[in-house]
Design goal:
Layout (H helix, E strand, L loop, with lengths): L2 H8 L2 H6 L5 E3 L2 E4 L11 E4 L4 E4 L5 E2 L1 H9 L3 H12 L13 H20 L3 H9 L4 H6 L3 E3 L5 H8 L4 H6 L3 E3 L10 E3 L4 E7 L5 E8 L9 E3 L15 H11 L2 E4 L2 H9 L5 E3 L7 H8 L4 E4 L5 H16 L3 E4 L8 H7 L1 H9 L4 H12 L3 H17 L4 H15 L3 H10 L24 H21 L7 H12 L9 H17 L5 H34 L2 H27 L2
Parallel strand pairs: 12-13, 12-14, 14-15
Antiparallel strand pairs: 1-2, 2-3, 3-4, 4-5, 6-9, 7-8, 9-10, 10-11
Length: about 575
């Protein structure tokens, strides 16, 4: 019996999925809210008999391995290792996959980490730095912190002697090639030198990159440098400490987000293991998607300086936009989380436990800072209204409009009028002080979701059309689908492409008597229309921005009116989807 078969024999699909998300019985199967796209209705179906899952909302499907790969962001080898440990299966031998470049990179990265860990034990400077920052020995060991000695080729020589090629070391981001002169071959040197090394792990705990903190006190030396992007490491996908924090995030139903590695170490050490760090990179939609799979509550604990507040706003815009409850642990001036915990642990605990909503925080800060009424109102418009505008829940939006009116004294009708004018560019929200757009994205793009929904609708249409006694009005369905497609997608599909779905439908709707074909089709049509309306709104947003820039007042008015109509329709769709829960 293969390792895969052994694992599948010991781990059922329901148990694996249940360890991540709540599931409930539905006839012979189970259902849940899909963890791979945002939804209010449970369209994620789990079949214990066939040991597979299928989502009627986004088309995600597979077994325990594909689920873990997708949820944890792992490759097959990572999922195999992860599930083998969970099942208590000792993996046998080296598979063909182990000979791939990816597996070679994992091996060399682990060897590099072992080298750095050993070097740390003989570096009093590195030990002193972490000791002064309050990081304990148990934390250092748990997070496998190391040290890169001050030399040009220490790591290179060590790994070369172990048989690793220059090409592999370069692909791993551990070494760099020096500039070669004419008739000379390149010489390589270590990327990290005289730095405390923080290993960055994937979700399965395998080292994929490093972040190095210099011990030199020179302005011309970067304080932190990170590994370049490699076959293993995509900085927009990886959060520092996520491998250790993910289970705690789920248990606490909250995630604390800090900026630096030492901030994270101190937070974990202080009893907040549900903390992750952006680790010097911009917070992305992919980062957010990882967190949102575990919890809907995000507590941001960035520095209170201008850069920290700007990052807080950008992150909050993304998180609010996908329906998360966003709070802020607002630190005292001049303190980062690590220093706060070291000097006043009880104060830190109080900050986290009583963290208010981000909109309340910005309202309070702006109110304290500006005394001139006109200037004050303008800052409310600039910084508070964009935050309110992305809140998807109409009741929540009304609450924050009321709160803004109470605190600021701005008439409610003025707030509501200005909210309609908040423009969200295609890529997100752009603040005048920011260099670029804030991307508000999830873990699956709309194109992928549309294609999955189109495939589902086509399959349901074909299945019902071929039935002698269809459960729905097939002509009505055909008319609705064509109206939504708007010539972008064809009703003509390859039967072979959707044949597996036809089998699934026949089995599911036969076994699960409570499932209603008409209900599911109506929901798919709503989900499809929601995506298409959002697409129209994005295009209108661009037109509004262009008309505003070009001073085309009449055109601007027309676009704004159409934008409002589409916004109202979007809210109707969202409410309709919610009412079906």
């Amino acid at each position: 019996m293969s390792d895969v078969e052994k694992i599948k024999e010991r781990l059922g699909i329901v148990d694996v999925v249940r360890s991540y998300i709540p599931v409930e019985k539905a006839g012979a199967s189970y259902k849940a809210k899909c963890p791979f796209h945002n939804e209010k209705t449970a369209s994620f179906n789990i079949s214990p008999e066939r040991n597979v899952y299928y989502c009627f909302g986004c088309g995600a499907r597979g077994d325990i391995f594909t689920f873990v790969e997708e949820f944890e962001g792992l490759d097959f080898a990572g999922a195999l290792t992860f599930l083998a440990d969970k099942a208590g299966v000792q993996l046998s031998g080296v598979s063909k996959k182990d000979t791939s470049l990816q597996e070679s990179l994992y091996r060399v990265m682990e060897e590099a980490l072992l080298y750095y860990e050993k070097e740390y034990t003989s570096s009093p400077e590195a030990s002193l730095y972490l000791q002064e920052r309050g990081v304990g020995e148990a934390t250092i060991a748990s997070f496998r912190i190391g040290f890169a000695p001050d030399g040009w080729r220490h790591l290179y020589d060590f790994l070369s002697k172990k048989g690793f090629s220059d090409s592999l070391l370069e692909k791993a981001g551990l070494i760099k090639a020096s500039e070669k002169k004419e008739n000379e071959t390149s010489r390589f040197y270590d990327r990290f030198r005289n730095r405390i090394m923080f290993p960055i792990m994937d979700s399965a705990g395998r080292v994929i990159a490093f972040s190095g903190r210099t011990l030199e006190k020179r302005d011309d030396v970067a304080k932190y440098i990170n590994s370049p992007e490699t076959e293993l490491f995509n900085k927009s996908d990886v959060l520092y400490g996520y491998d250790k924090a993910k289970t705690h995030i789920r248990n606490a139903n909250a995630c604390i987000l800090v900026e630096g590695q030492v901030d994270l170490l101190m937070a974990h050490q202080a009893g907040f293991p549900y903390t992750v760090a952006s680790s010097g990179t911009s917070f992305t939609g992919s980062h957010l998607a990882r967190i949102k799979r575990m919890t809907d509550t995000l507590i941001i604990a960035f520095d209170r300086d201008r850069a920290g507040l700007l990052s807080t706003k950008k992150t909050a815009l993304m998180a609010l936009g996908v329906g998360m409850n966003v709070k802020v642990a607002l630190l005292p001036e001049g303190k980062d989380p690590a220093l706060m915990i070291q000097e006043d642990k009880e104060g830190w605990i109080h900050l986290v436990k009583t963290a208010p909503h981000v909109i309340e925080v910005f309202l309070r800060e702006i109110t304290k800072k500006y005394t001139d009424k006109r200037e004050y109102w303008q800052h409310i418009k600039k910084h508070i209204l964009p935050l309110i505008s992305v809140v998807p829940d109409a009741i929540d939006r009304s609450f924050f409009v009321d709160e803004t009116q109470k605190v600021s004294g701005i008439p409610k009708y003025s707030i509501e009028d200005e909210l309609k004018k908040v423009v969200l560019p295609k890529e997100g929200i752009v603040d005048e002080e920011e260099k670029g757009p804030i991307k508000i994205t999830g873990d699956k793009n709309d194109r992928t979701r549309v294609e999955a929904i189109v495939r589902m609708l086509n399959a349901l249409y074909l299945w019902q059309k071929e039935k002698k006694d269809p459960d729905i009005d097939v002509l009505y369905l055909e008319k609705e689908i064509k109206a939504l497609y708007k010539d972008m997608y064809s009703m003509e599909v390859e039967v072979s492409d959707i044949a597996p779905l036809l089998f699934e439908f026949e089995k599911i709707y036969t076994e699960e008597k409570e499932r209603n074909v008409k209900h599911d089709i109506e929901e798919l049509l709503l989900l499809f229309e929601e995506i298409m309306v959002r697409k129209e709104l994005q295009e209108l947003t661009e037109k509004v921005a262009d008309a505003e820039r070009n001073g085309e007042k009449e055109l601007l008015q027309d676009y704004m009116h159409t934008h409002q109509e589409y916004s109202q329709r979007l809210q109707e769709i969202i409410n309709a989807i919610k009412s079906r829960t």
